[in-house]
Design brief:
It contains six helices and eight strands; from the N terminus they run E-H-E-H-H-E-H-E-H-E-E-E-E-H. By secondary structure, it is α/β, with parallel strands linked by helices. The protein has a single domain (5-190), classed as Flavodoxin domain (Rossmann fold), CATH 3.40.50.360. The strands form two sheets. Strands 1, 2, 3, 4, 5 and 6 form a six-stranded parallel sheet that branches. Strands 7-8 form a two-stranded antiparallel sheet. Strand 3, helix 4 and strand 4 (108-115) form a beta-alpha-beta unit.
Length: 193
Amino acid sequence: MTRPLRLVAVSGGLQRPSRAVALTEHLLDLIADEVPCEQRLVELGQLAPYFAGAVWRSELPTAVERALSAVEQADVLVVTSPVYRGSYTGLFKHFFDFIHQDALIGKPVLLAATGGSERHALVIEHQLRPLFSFFQTNTLPLGVYATDKDFVDYRVHNDALIQRARLAVQRALPLLELMRSQETAAVQEVAPA
């Protein structure tokens, strides 16, 4: 029997409630409906006071170190950032600056972003995808971008967005199932006969 996938999401939203958090939670729920997983949501807005001024990982408090370790040990990542001045937030980048450059190699990453209008929809392709290419992750082919009008009371509400999110997860499932089958084979190979 394989263990559940470690699904870790990082939301770059700086406040609560947050559209970025709402989109992140929606994506987590969609994945959890399809694949047995252990979920963890890292909200950078809540951790900001503890790492915003740090320069070295050794300066970070335990709570931030735990969040970084969870990201590095994840089987699958969901990352979401609000668009700020045409890109992900500086706090989002600062958090990932502490991640070891080899820790995410080959991990599937579902990219998502929120913004005030459709004008920033390419942030996924022009900002997020290159960042996670540096880490040599396996960024999933479909990203999910949402605007302010896609939410009502900080809940995903737009049917087109709901369909896009569902499609992004459906397209990711074959890769997640492949990961699970490889893990099962590895466990069986190591287990005594």
